[in-house]
Structures are given as structure tokens and as C-alpha cells.
UniProtKB/TrEMBL annotation:
Alphabetical list of Pfam families matching this protein: PK_Tyr_Ser-Thr
Residues engaged in binding ATP: 44
Naturally occurring in which organism (per UniProt): Emiliania huxleyi (Coccolithophore)
The UniProt record lists the keyword Phosphoprotein: no
Keywords, in A-Z order: ATP-binding, Nucleotide-binding
Molecular function per GO: ATP binding; protein kinase activity
Top-level taxon of the source organism: Eukaryota
Signal peptide coordinates: none
One GO cellular component term: plasma membrane
InterPro entries for this protein: Kinase-like_dom_sf, Prot_kinase_dom, Protein_kinase_ATP_BS, Ser-Thr/Tyr_kinase_cat_dom, Tyr_kinase_AS
Name of this protein: Protein kinase domain-containing protein
Statement: the UniProt record of this protein carries the keyword ATP-binding: yes
Amino acid sequence: LDELIAATDAFAEARKVGEGGFGRVYRCDALPSLPRVACGFAVKTALVGVGAQGLAELQSEVRTLSAACHPSLLPLLGVCLAPARACLVYPLCRGGSLEDRLYRTPAALQRLRMLGFETLPPTLSAAARLCVLRDAARALHYLHTLSPMILHRDVSAGNILLDERGNGYLADVGLARAAEATAGSNGQVSHLSTQRIFGKPGYIDQIILNDNQASQLTDGFALGITLLVSLTGRGAV
């Protein structure tokens, strides 16, 4: 934890590049305990202490996600499991999020400036958007084909990141969980019962709201909404 505090200048606001389902995201150029990467690091830190139960759950999630490896899945590079401030470390995607590149708001410009853009980057063409979505869809399909299946639970335009070459990465897997297989009328259906609703408004399938169950179908619904907003430029409703 001390290493992350030093690298992010004590999680300074000037180093903040965004927020996700897990918490706030800060950039840093180097971490002594990890091999140097040209793009730098993104450090996600929980908004509050995780406590003993939360720490055990996070350890379980990290073990599951550490085994996941796909070219379009943002890799987990490091973990800090300090109860006072749990952190996850990923490569920094300097192309920003698909959401920021689509909507180009003043807040988006501020986040892109933190990543190195002096002015708003060019609008993504329809072909470029489809390529980014293809990359994210492949990563999500990969998670769904693992055993046990991993559900993302927070697919959205804000959780698809771009590198400097325009490649897409499915990110914010801090909410991902292994699903349970249950027999249904159509055979084996993998799902995860949940008492908390995760995901962004407009991207959440009604099944989750009604039945408190996430599945590959609800992940697919969120991906479909992401495709819709990406091609139309309109926000999710």
C-alpha cells in the first residue's frame, strides 16, 4: 500500500483519471514491484475499507480473475489487499474510454487530458467503433466460456477502454464473479444470485431488477445497449 500511495502522490486528485464500479482510478508512471510498462499503470482503489468479509471476497475474485487471459481483456497486473484500502493495478489505457470518446463532454475532455491529450481526439468513425466493440465482445465471450463461467456484471461504454492504437479492452472486472450452473428448461443456465444491483442505469437488464439474477444473458443485454449507444451516439435510457 505504501508503494501505491507514493506512486500516486497519496491518491492525489491531479492523478485521478476516472471512476468505476470498484472505486476511483489513478495513474502512475512506475511501480517498483512491477516490470515497467510504456503506457504506465492505472491504480483502482476502493472508495471505502473492504472489511474482513469484503477482503475474503476480493481474494476469491482475484484468484478467479488471475486465471483469465485474453488479448482484449484488460489484464490484472497487481493487487493490494490492505483492508483499509484495497487496490487493483492494471495497464493504463491512454486512449480513454469508449464513453468519453463518444460523448466528448467537458468532463470527458478533462479525463482525456489527464491521459495526455491536449485537445479532444478525432471522432471515432463507425468502423473504428465496431472494431472496439468487436474486441470487447470477444473478451466477454471468453469470460463466458471459462469454467466456472465469469460474469462481468457491468458492461458499458464506460468500461471499454482504448489504447493509443485504438484497440479495445473490456475493463472494470472488479465486479466480475464466477457463476453457478443450474438446470433450467433449456438445459444448463449459468447465473449468479445477487442481493445488490450492479451496473449502470440504462444498461441493466430487467431480469436483474425482477429476479436478482445475473447471467450471460444479462451481460449480453448490456453489451447490446453498448452497441446501440456506440452506433447512435445517444445515451442509454
